[in-house]
Design goal:
Layout (H helix, E strand, L loop, with lengths): L17 E3 L4 H11 L3 E6 L2 E7 H9 L20 E2 L5 H11 L3 E5 L5 E6 H11 L5 H7 L12
Parallel strand pairs: 1-2, 4-5
Antiparallel strand pairs: 2-3, 5-6
Helix pairs in contact: 4-5
Length: about 150
């Protein structure tokens, strides 16, 4: 269901991969691969403190020929974590992504507990759906079209 100008809670992914900040990069990457996700939220004592993306793994571990089993996510995570509340509007989320030059926002409640993650792809899918998948540009950004699953690089 396409979300109008309501909160981002209806668009966010609730099943977020989270790892402790003492997890090594190899285990983090394996978990990301197994779940088919491009990032994981790093937590300390249950609170979100950073994020590790595929780009972090490539640029901060692989490109430097480091042993991923010896590198902890606390040393490569991106911080500060850019967060917003579940009632934030889609427009506010898009503005934050633009302002901070990020593709992912972590959604937290008023106490800072992790609720979900919102990606640029989530916003693009919402746009494509709002236009009934009739706009090829939105479909391309969302990597979606009505009734279509997967793609050639799966």
């Amino acid at each position: 269901m396409a979300v109008e100008e309501g909160g981002v809670a209806g668009l966010m992914q609730r099943a977020v991969l989270a790892v402790d900040l003492n997890t090594n990069a190899s285990d983090c990457a394996a978990a990301m691969s197994k779940r088919g996700v491009s990032c994981c939220v790093v937590t300390e004592a249950g609170s979100a403190v950073g994020i590790v993306t595929e780009r972090d793994l490539v640029s901060k571990v692989l490109a430097d020929s480091l042993d991923p089993k010896k590198v902890l996510v606390r040393d490569i995570m991106s911080t500060p974590l850019i967060t917003l509340g579940p009632d934030a509007s889609v427009t506010e989320a898009a503005g934050m992504m633009t302002e901070y030059k990020v593709r992912r926002l972590v959604v937290v409640d008023s106490s800072g507990s992790l609720l979900g993650i919102l990606t640029a792809g989530d916003l693009a899918r919402n746009l494509a759906q709002k236009h009934d998948y009739k706009e090829p540009t939105y479909n391309a950004l969302a990597r979606a079209r009505e009734g279509f699953e997967g793609g050639p690089y799966q």
